[in-house]
Design a protein that fits this description.
- The chain is an alpha+beta fold and about 400 residues long.
- The chain has a domain of about 180 residues: 2-enoyl-CoA Hydratase, Chain A, domain 1 (Alpha-Beta Complex).
- Helix content is about 25%, strand content about 30%.
- It contains 10 helices and 22 strands.
- The strands form 6 sheets. Strands 2, 3, 16, 17, 20 and 21 form a 6-stranded mixed β-sheet that branches. Strands 12-13-14-18-19-22 form a 6-stranded mixed β-sheet, sandwiched between helices. It has a 4-stranded antiparallel β-sheet with strand order 8-7-9-10.
- A hairpin with a 2-residue loop joins strand 5 and strand 6.
- Helix 8 runs parallel beside helix 9.
- The radius of gyration is 23 Å and the shape is globular.
Length: about 400
Amino acid sequence: MNKLRIFGTYLVVLAMGAALALAVNYVVESGLPAGMGSESSARDLPPEFDRLGEAWELLSQEHIDRLEMDAGTLSDGAIQGMLEALDDPYASYLDAQQFDAESQEIRGFFEGIGAQVGIQEGRLTIIAPLPDTPAEHSGIRPGDVILAIDGESADGLSLLEAVSRIRGERGTTVELLVMHLNSREPTLIPITRGVIPLETVRFALRPDGIGHLRISSFSDTTNQQVEAALREFRQANGTGLIVDLRNNPGGLLKSVVDVTSQFLADGLVTYELDGQGNRREWQVSSGGQGLDIPMVVLVNQFSASASEVFAGAIIDHNRAPVIGVTSFGKGSVNTMRGLSDGSGIFFTIARWYTPNGTLIEGAGITPTYEVAIPPDANSDVQLERAIELLQQRTAQSR
């Protein structure tokens, strides 16, 4: 598998097999880079790593339980400690079983709970439950902080560690202790896992001709679904389009480039910079079906990664206004690399930028019009503002 993915989170369709990444650019590779075998790796270690060997020798010779010590367990712990010291919120260690599961190809469905999870302010947070899934039906909400998984604290878990604990086969149950937004007491929510289809686009046309295009994530089929929605919009003589990316955690890089290209004639969609300053660009693909459609984009604090790439490109190209609140701020490129024993590590290798050079990671996308939904709101004020703005724009263009 060699698919770039953006996860701003982890699309925990919390699934069996590889979860659809929501927003870190993510590529799976096996083994060490070319020319790096175990012998050359040992020779290339900096002198500071000599202390690891010294510590092992002391423990193996003098620790009271030295006869029961397991070298593999201690080696796992050393790798985990090294990753934690990076101050990289996405760095994780995966044992051989976890690495094999994460390396599987994306299927047309997942078995899991149907939620999208990320790390926000150091806490394991639900980005959004997918529509009509076990997570949504059980009462999981955007912004829920996961405190415990099956009675064990989630504090200190990496994203992938948490995902591996929550996912599982359909018909089995996982219990999540969550803290809802604006709540003082946690809630224990049992969820029976099920089959989660990857339907990422929903489209509805209002009586006034305004289309509401909701994209829940960016998968292999999202661009085709968007094209179908645009054909339906044109056949119905639609007047304007709302592209709703709220609670969208991200997805495949190719998918978001293709979908963004539906609305831009040319130019840059996004670029990345790695640790050496090398730049890689993704350009608009020609032939977009929505180039001349008046549109507005909706984002919120749970729009992440690929959603932020889309919104950033739309803003920088002056294509349409973006309404909502500052997005999640997940714009890092991550890789999962295999180690010699079948285990692996997951870490950041680059960061994403909008066409005009705005860093997405940690900052998010600032909307053109800041519109927050009050906790006591009885209606969707962001959607209402988008409709109002589109009606004004279409009236002016007549």
